[in-house]
């Protein structure tokens, strides 16, 4: 994939990373009541990524390429605003034309995303400010590691994806159909992705539809992103 270098009129060949930025259920109502607030989601995502990259080398002030899109519903079609971002695995600096960056510090992104969003909400929400302040304090206490960010999804070519699946088959989660017993190995990053964006009961694991009979497939054993281990 390519990232446009607008200053020099060139295209830079670089890999991209697919990221998902989520928010706690308690905050979703604010965006449902005032849809104009949705715009701050992409702004805060972009700022979280850009400020982290800038701090890698402040004299360079590295700037990545970012495309961010808001999804307002989860897999079960309930209100669940979250942001999908396509981010270059590299940045342009003031002195360096391009620096490849393939490591993203998840904890830092999570905390930046949390603080930037909560600060924006405090400024933009004009009613029930005391209620919001109490909620934010509670959220900081309950989410001391920040809001969940999925940032492991490297975007690549179809051929590379096929080779990766062949080479990393052991990284999949074994799923079993509860109806016909069909077994299927599903890539762990796919399972984790649905675990993040699903707005259902966290005591239930991500499930898939069986290609053989249409039944429900459940994981034989899966350690979820919420710290729960599911076993069939």
List keywords for this structure.
232 residues; disordered N terminus; alpha+beta; single chain; four-stranded antiparallel sheet; Alpha-Beta Plaits; 2 domains
SSE layout and pairings?
Elements: E1 2-5, E2 10-13, E3 16-21, H1 25-33, H2 39-54, E4 66-73, E5 79-88, E6 90-91, E7 99-100, H3 106-124, H4 129-142, E8 149-155, H5 158-167, E9 172-177, E10 183-187, H6 188-197, E11 208-209, E12 216-219, E13 221-223, E14 229-231
Antiparallel strand pairs: 1-2, 3-5, 3-8, 4-5, 6-7, 9-10, 9-12, 11-12, 13-14
Helix pairs in contact: 2-3
Walk me through the structure.
The protein is an alpha+beta fold and 232 residues long. It has two domains: 2-152, Alpha-Beta Plaits (2-Layer Sandwich); 168-231, no CATH class. The protein contains six helices and 14 strands. The strands form five sheets. Strands 4-5-3-8 form a four-stranded antiparallel beta sheet, with helices on both faces. Strand 6 and strand 7 form a beta hairpin. It is globular, with a radius of gyration of 20 Å. The relative contact order is 0.15. The model is unreliable at 1-8 (pLDDT under 50).
